Amino acid sequence: MTYFTEPRSFLIKKGSLFAILLVVQFAFSQNVPITISGESKTSSEFFKELEDKSGYSFFYLDDWIEDLKVEQNFQEATISNILEVVLSETQLNFYLLEEEKRVFLLQNTIIYDELPPSFYQTKDTLGSTTVVQSKRNVPPPTFYNDEVSQTTEKLPVVRIGRANEQHLRPTYRLSGRAINAETGAPIPDLAIRVKGRSGVTVTNEQGEYELVLPAGYNLISTSAMGIRDSEREVIMYNDGTMNLQLQESLEQLQEVVVEADAVSNVEEAVSGSEEISSEESKDIPLVLGERNILEVAKALPGISSAGEGASGLNVRGGKTDQNLVLLDDAVIYNPTHFFGIFQALNPFTTEKVNIYKGAPPVEFGGRLSSVLDIETKNGDTEKISGEGSIGPVTGNLALEIPLKKEVSSLVIGGRGAYADWILKALDDEDLSNSEASFFDGIIKYHHKFSENSEIRGTAYYSKDNFSITSDSLYNYSNRLGSVRWAHKLSEKSTGVLTASNSNYNFGIDYDDEGNSNFELDYTINESELRYRLNTRLNEAHTLDYGISGKYYSVEPGNIEPKGNDSNVEPITIDRERALEGALFIGDEFKISDKLLLNVGARYAFYAAMGEATQNTYQEGEGAPRSESTVQDTISYDSGEFIKTYGGPEARVSARYLFTPDFSVKASFNNSYQFIHTLSNNTTVSPIDTWKLSDLNIKPQKGYQATFGFFKNFNENMYELSLEGYYKRMDDVLDFKTGADLLLNENVETEVLQGEGKAYGVEFLLKKKRGSLNGWLGYTYSRSKYRFDGETSEERINNGEFFPSNFDKPHDLSVIANYKFTRRYSVSMNFVYQTGRPITYPTGTFRFNNADYVTFSDRNKYRIPDFYRLDLGINIEGNHKKNKLAHSFITIQVYNVLGRNNPYSVFFVTDDGEVKALQSSIFGMPIPSITYNFKF
């Protein structure tokens, strides 16, 4: 409620003697000296004594001053000075009514004894209204009508700041932190909206936000996945803070849709990004009932793989090595188990994965196609909890252990496989006689020092062992660790310091009845240090900037004889070393409520380092790289730069908002990639080697442009997007026909570097709520490469563009879940893809009494189209509160139609006739039952 007295200036204009005496009385009463002590007194006792000594009557509510501590002593002070000191650190103001010797304490607001300028209006000679300007060039005071709050039920009114008549502004700044009321954990990506204004503010990783709001009344709403929506009435009197304690929403966790925020797909500037929570994968039927967040990603437009059982992802026509896969900020080189069928990520410790297919955030670099940023959940700081599953192939358990209440926690997860039996059921005689096992484990520590500082540390290890034949045992492992310290530097700036280390290793243990037994090893190791800062300059500009540095150490391989009888010659390839660094800065620039830009620049630097030797080769027509064209061999000392590469990278995204639920987006980015995989397999293999750029192998370069439309319907129940992209790639790697890549000291003589292009259109329709939910995704795309050298040996398909191994023009995915009740639901996963390209033999010829095969141009033909239907029944346990554990059972059938989809096609000569044979991973329906529990 706002109070007004008659303007004093009006009284003085009357010129009456009474007015003059009143002014004199006011001046005298203000200077009556008062001596009073606040020591050993409650606030009520202090104000009662002040009331007695001053002769003024005080008006206030007791709960306004119950937390007020008065510790000052006052000697011969006026009542105005006393109140200014006592109330200076509170949200209270005061008003003196001299005529009646009364003091009114006011919560936040002030009483004005002069009406604002807009109350005084005159008419000019033309009849138009003219506002009389005030002597002070300040905005009018804040007016608030109590009846406004009655329009929305049960919404508490929050008053922010203490009004100051000398510093009135049209807008004030509101900041704070959003936390989970149950766990105390910060809530990132919380959308905060102001009614009547377009645009949205999103909390950062520490749950912090900042808004600029008009003075006076505002209605603020919040929403986020897994958090109950809320509304708050806020009255802004000055700058201030408002922390949000929000409740969880259990109902949202049961949805089977990719949903980070109701309208983020429309309002964000960045396009081509998706967020998938691990919880969303539990109802989607996948092979052997295993949750697989990476397999769910393949159901999104623009993301696919070379085939069933392929362990890599192909994003918008890019190769598998062009994806940067991060687990808590550390690179994981092979995030799959069991020939790519299972993910190497514990689904019960994984929180979510953010996928960037277009222009990624400016802090990320080093890959051409995409970034998969996987985040592990923080542990519960209140009570011990856990989750696990028992399936036909794996057992899984994850625990959340509080170490100090509301401060620190530990997450521990482990899973192992008992998978040998499934190999015997595969439609492949060789595989049916094989064996395989794997395990992975993860530990995450999270500690919150204060509201402004927290640290997390993650350690992860996985290992696979498999035997395709009785004489060979293959193994590969991932090991990584990361430490991340997030801290608040000021009200506007936060910083994140990250240190990480990653290691990938594979080996072959060959043991037969002869004398050719050997052991082979390969290792790549990298360490990175990155510091990223975020500063909100004002409502229009938010900066992201920082620096990163990375050190690579690659042992390309060594082979050692096994046993005393082995005649294998030992070979060790020289270690490779390199430095990679970057400086980056980005600005989210809000030009208007409709137009939002996200502009970034990144400078990437790379240096191949010694100790090493490098060959130089003859240049010119008719001189392909080979051992016979070596011109010179150069030796480099330890730490000496062999070759440096680098250049600027752009990150530009723009969004124009036509309506609150319809926008158009465009983006452009370019990037460098200094590390490559060397493989002559159709699909990615655990024994593919990584190769650093050096004197003879250049870094890959990529350029991508996108344009798309994004629309929501029916109160954001439906999401619709249509996005097109064009990508160009330079210096991409491929292999020469018959290349020998493993343990090759001069591997640059076996590879080619050329150009690539990819383009496509992606369509996505989601239904996020209701009994029936899910999504339909369709992609039309092409991915082509060209290698054109000066000799036939350096050309593929006569130097013309040809389809890549993973070029699949048509890709359709349908994921649906129907809930009969809260406990019972059925789900479906349908996939259709054009068959991938393949090189066929086109004829035979006889030479020197021997038969030889002639092949078509590379990837001229295609294997049969791929399609698969999976069905599942999901049964939730009863929802009684007092239970030892809550259960969830999935009954699923993978490949219901028994489609014999080809994994690969190969050719053999039988009785002088060349025959084509195909191998399938799952050529029959695969049923499974998985029991999940949570406590």
From TrEMBL:
Domain TonB-dependent receptor plug span(s) in chain numbering: 289-367
MF terms (GO), sorted A to Z: siderophore uptake transmembrane transporter activity
Annotated localization: Cell outer membrane
UniProt GO BP: siderophore transmembrane transport
Membrane topology, as annotated: Multi-pass membrane protein
Keywords assigned by UniProt, alphabetized: Cell outer membrane, Membrane, Receptor, Signal, TonB box, Transmembrane, Transmembrane beta strand, Transport
Organism for this UniProt entry: Allomuricauda ruestringensis (strain DSM 13258 / CIP 107369 / LMG 19739 / B1) (Muricauda ruestringensis)
Pfam family, one: CarbopepD_reg_2
Family: Belongs to the TonB-dependent receptor family.
Chief location bin: membrane
PROSITE patterns, alphabetized: TONB_DEPENDENT_REC_3
Gene Ontology CC terms, in alphabetical order: cell outer membrane
Protein name: TonB-dependent receptor plug
Domain TonB-dependent receptor-like beta-barrel: 444-895
